[in-house]
Write a structure and sequence with these properties.
Structural class: alpha/beta
Radius of gyration: 21 Å
Strand order of the largest sheet: 3-2-1-4-5-6-7
Strand content: 15-25%
Shape: globular
Distance between the termini: 24 Å
Number of strands: 13
Order of helices and strands: EHEEHEHEHEHEEHEEHEHEHEHHH
Mean pLDDT: 90
Helix content: 25-40%
Length: about 350
């Protein structure tokens, strides 16, 4: 098994690590990924992890393709599992022109044509995905939303499945090590401060909400250089912590009352299931896969992204008692749907049996 990625970090890195960790003993795993901006801590033997020099640009594609194809020829894997859009393009493109002697599995980890981009780009992305699907044996979608979007675009309808991402059930926290205001409704935001994540929408809603007993803790920062800096100094109800190591996030999930995800689009929603794992309800937009994970008034709240006043209404409605009432539902929804064992079992079944299940 050869996993292939471009910039492998964050959720995609966690996903691959989980598959490797629980890999059957008869599968030997290899990994090839870009040297810059990728995770470098892997449980594989050193000679089983190959890095290639690369920066995202059209002129880098041909050199990357050559390195990737050379590696495939040397390793001779039975299966290659490609992660994310750019890697999906670089790896599959040569197979449009040559014979394929292996099985290709592809996971876009979020379709590029669903992102907030100009219409002409969406058309280009859709065309490319539709063409490259012809040399793909199985496409794994991380949510029903992504799966249905692929079907609507006629992308490999007979070779697509959906398998939710899963994470460890292990709880790791020490709430005595973190501080949040007492006697206040503590909201928690975790993620990049960019347009996709809707942090601007959340901050505007906080401004419009006149409750004095509400406090927002923000974990994350700007990542994209073309995004405007977030002003976190204009409201004493906001605490900005910057990035916090993932190993420490459990403390904040456990300490807060509710997690907020006002995303404009979301292929899955890893932060949401991390919150559910710790028994915390989540306030989400009605975009992407988030309404699949969070059910209104059961394990959280869903607001209409098309009406900015709806988020403010929910902020007025939430209270600590309601959040506590939802805690058990939150934990159960995680156990029933989003554990790493469930994800791994379904994925390895797909390896062996093909794309006849989980649709």
């Amino acid at each position: 098994m050869l996993h292939i990625g471009e910039y492998v970090q964050g959720g995609v890195a966690t996903y691959i690590k989980t598959l490797i960790k629980y890999s059957p003993k008869d599968i030997e795993n290899y990994l090839i990924l870009a040297d810059e901006k990728s995770e470098h801590n892997w449980s594989l033997k050193k000679d089983h992890v190959i890095y290639y020099k690369y920066k995202r640009s059209w002129k880098s594609i041909i050199p990357a393709i050559i390195i990737i194809q050379t590696t495939i020829k040397e390793i001779k894997p039975d299966i290659i599992y490609i992660h994310s859009t750019w890697a999906g393009t670089m790896v599959r493109l040569p197979y449009l022109f040559k014979r394929k002697k292996l099985k290709i599995i592809y996971n876009p980890h979020g379709w590029s044509f669903l992102m907030d981009t100009p219409k002409y780009k969406k058309c280009v992305y859709t065309f490319v995905e539709r063409v490259l699907a012809n040399v793909t044996d199985i496409i794994i979608n991380v949510s029903k939303f992504e799966y249905n979007a692929a079907l609507q675009k006629n992308i490999a309808p007979n070779r697509s499945v959906h398998i939710y991402n899963g994470i460890s059930q292990e709880l790791n926290y020490d709430i005595e090590k973190v501080s949040m205001p007492e006697n206040k409704l503590n909201l928690l935001f975790v993620g990049r401060f960019d347009k996709q994540k809707g942090i601007d929408i959340l901050l505007e809603a906080i401004k419009q909400c006149t409750r004095k007993d509400i406090h927002l803790t923000m974990i994350g920062d700007n990542v994209l250089t073309d995004e405007s800096p977030i002003d976190t100094n204009d409201d004493n109800r906001i605490t900005f912590l910057g990035w916090v190591p993932h190993s420490k996030l459990g403390n904040y999930y456990k300490k807060c009352d509710i997690v907020v995800m006002p995303s404009r689009w979301e292929a899955f929603g890893l932060v949401a299931i991390e919150a559910l794992k710790y028994g915390k309800p989540v306030l989400v937009s009605n975009r992407g896969a988030l309404p699949e994970i969070i059910h209104n008034n059961e394990n959280g709240f869903v607001f209409d992204m098309d009406d900015s006043s709806k988020l403010v209404e929910v902020l007025y409605k939430i209270n600590k008692d309601k959040c506590k009432e939802m805690s058990e539902n939150a934990r159960h929804s995680f156990i029933d749907n989003f554990t790493e064992k469930d994800m791994v079992d379904k994925t390895y079944y797909i390896y062996n049996m093909g794309s006849n299940s989980f649709c």
